[in-house]
Each structure stands twice: as C-alpha cells, then as structure tokens.
Fold this protein.
Amino acid sequence: MTSTLDVGVLRAEPGTKTRGTVPADLGTLTVDIPLTLVNGAHPGPRVLITAGVHGGEFTGVDAATRLAALLEPGEVHGQVIVCPVANPPAVYQGRLGVSPLDGVNINRVFPGDPDGSPTERLAAWLFTNLVDDADAYVDLHSGGIDEVLTDFVGYRLTGDPELDVQTADMAGALGIEDVIFGMNAEGGNSHAAAARQGVPAILVETGQLGERDAATARRLVEGLRGVLGRLGVLDIKPKDDTAVRAWVWAAGVTAEATGLWYPAFTAGDDVTEGQVLGHVIDPADGREHKVLSPATGRIFYGMHGLTVAPGAELAAIAAPAPQDSGGH
C-alpha cells in the first residue's frame, strides 16, 4: 500500500496531489520552498526533481512547473516530489549562481550544514527533507544569464556497479545525446552529494543565456517523462537511449585577470590543447591577456558576459570517454 507523503507542513494522501510551500529556517531568516507532492495511486519509487538551485537558469524552473501541473496521481506508480525553486533567494533576488544572502554557491556546499551560513543551512534542509528519502533524483540546471551552453546530462561514478548502472540508465532516458560523467562523486554538487548517499542522481543542463523558451521547456518535460517511465513511475513505454556520446570532464578555464572578455568560441565547439579561446583586455591600459585551451575536447559551456574577474569560469571542456570507463 502506498504511504502518506509528508514534507514539512505539506501532506499528500495516496492517490492525491498537494501543492504549496514549506518554510525552511535558515537561521537569520525563513524562506518558503514551493513543492508539488504527487502521491500515486499505485506503489513505486519516490522520485525527486529540483530546479532553481541557481538564479538566472530558467528552463529547468519552467519545465519543473509544467511537469508538476501535468502529473496526475492516478497515473503515478510511487511518489514524485517537484521543487521548481529550490533556492528562492538566488532565483528571485540574485539571478546568479551565488546567493545574495551570503555570496555562497549552494551547488558547491551540498549536503550542507544545519549550523552554517544561510545557504549551507538551505542545502542541509533540501537534503534532509527531500533528497535523503528519495529513490532517484533529477536536478535541473540551465545556462545562466551570462553563459553559453550546449545541452548535456551529467552524473558521477561511485564505484558501486549497481548504483552506477541505475544512474546511467536514468541519464540515457532523457533524450539528450551528450552524457558527461565524473570519475568520482567528490565535491559539493547536489548530484554528487546524493550519489555519495546511495541515491541515483543526474544533473540535466538545458538552454542557455538565461533564455525562456517554451519549446525547450516542453522538450525537457518530455525527457523527464521518459525518465519517470524508465523508473516505472509512469506507465509509458521508455524510449530507446539517444545518449550515444559519452564524455569525461577534461579541464576548466578560469580568468586570471580582471577585464573585458572576448571569447573566440561558442558552446559545442571542438578545441585542441593550446588553441586560443579568447582574450581578456584590461580597460585601463588596453593590455591583452591571451587565454589558451589547456586540453583537447569539446566546450560544453562558457562565459558569454563581457566583464570578468580572476577566478571567473570562462569555459568547461570535456573529452570523449574511454570505452571501458563505465559511462553508458
């Protein structure tokens, strides 16, 4: 028998859907986290879908909201929790990767700290209330307002064969051709922290430049329905995997100087080690700092904004995965 689905003050009985907000205490303030709880009429796994972990990334927020409206409890086997705005301060006030509350990028501090900064507390709240009890987790991201990006799915290898196969199976069900996996589950990303806790978790990156595009959002909804079908939550025939290209992260490129960034690439371009990726020009004296590619591979996302400071991420490069590396 399917059990009651409770998150904070929200409750969904079996065969019902509940929408509302749950307060999260961040120490110096409380934020309201919007949630849709879909408690299926039939038993099955619990799947968590989050979006709005970062501000300025709109496709995932749009798609999660659309999916939450579409899901009907009578069609659901198990439970689906949709959180379209996981980080309200960044989404509604900051529009950037970092929170205006404390300057912290929440996707570097998961699973969080219940006694830490407001953002660290929010990360801990999300894990305690949403991730810890999930049987599968999908985190939706997009290219931000100053970021070019070509769509991809990401996940981490854990060394647990069963978990890695489950995760690869989810990644292949989205209808996105490029899958990039990390060789370990270290770090503060949501999907990495979830994987360390034994939850099959994938990162989905769709859209770029903070665009709001209804067609892109609708495609993502169909991809998410494919994942739910693959997990047995929806009674739909899973599509064949379209993820025929497996990649591993090869290098990140960061700015070494303050100035104006003039890239010589766009997302999806193939580059070779030593190739000029662009220039950072000092507006005070006109000096040029040449930026070279540290690796051969494909650029999956990069900085589109004009102004950069040291440490700003200019490009992320992935290389084709070795055949025996475990990426499916």
